[in-house]
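User: I'm new to structure prediction. If I give you an amino acid sequence, what do you actually give back? Let's try with this one:
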Amino acid sequence: MGINSLTLSDEEIKNLKELISLKKLKKIPITNEYELLRIKDGEINLIIYKTGKIVFNENPDTIEILNFVMLRETDYDYILGSDETGKGEWYGPLVIVATALNPEEIIKLRLSGVKDSKTIKKTKIMELAIKIMKMDFPRQYMVLKPYSYNKLYKNLKNEKKSLNDLLAWAHSRVIHELLGKIEFVRTKVVIDQFDQQKTEYRLGNYDKKRIEIIQKTGAESETPVAAASIIAKYLFETEINNLDNEYGLNLRNSNPKDIKPETLPYVAKLHFKNVNEYYK
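Assistant: Good question. You get back a string of structure tokens that encode the predicted 3D arrangement of the chain. For your 280 residues, that looks like this:
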């Protein structure tokens, strides 16, 4: 069993402290000013920080304690989260992923280390993605390879539309496809906000009594969005490897000027300035 970490809410920290007192778990001295508590009792090993971060050893006794104190959002059968990656890179695809998690699956993923991917090293993201993709929860994804992406972007540009229109279309499509895979009385959909009006337009009409749509910045704080982001990054990196192998390139360490112009539409996003100046 390894060492893992997660962040608990204020209420979850309160629950944890009450359970520690109730079970009379052995406390040991803290080692720095950032720590709130240290617990070492048999196989249970916990470091609780003032920020709410918990570092713990992954054994059944510790997992049982954390599982008990973590809160479930029980108003919904599923919570969906969608995110994308690749929009900021001149090379490779645009990847959009949506996941659907029930309350218990959210707890399981949090305990597995799923959190905002911006706080996780790339190697860990790849390991974590493989781990969570083996779990049996509904998901839907779209990998827009450069050639398809460029065609779509050009068509939208001709219609006086922007990248945000493409993103709104892609997010709404994977969300609608995922909603069609699950059975629910009530569900919540969380989207990392980029253009609220365009996304709402693309989502179209939906049953607001059964489906709640939330667009917010920093949406990776929500586990379904974080899981979608981790999977998206894995799919992006996998597709880069495929493109490298197919075209004999090293895209992560390349410059558009070093790639044959006739190859660029298949490996790069042509509207990026550093690509467009070498593609004629």
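You can read the tokens as a compact description of the fold. Here is one thing that stands out. The mean pLDDT is 93.
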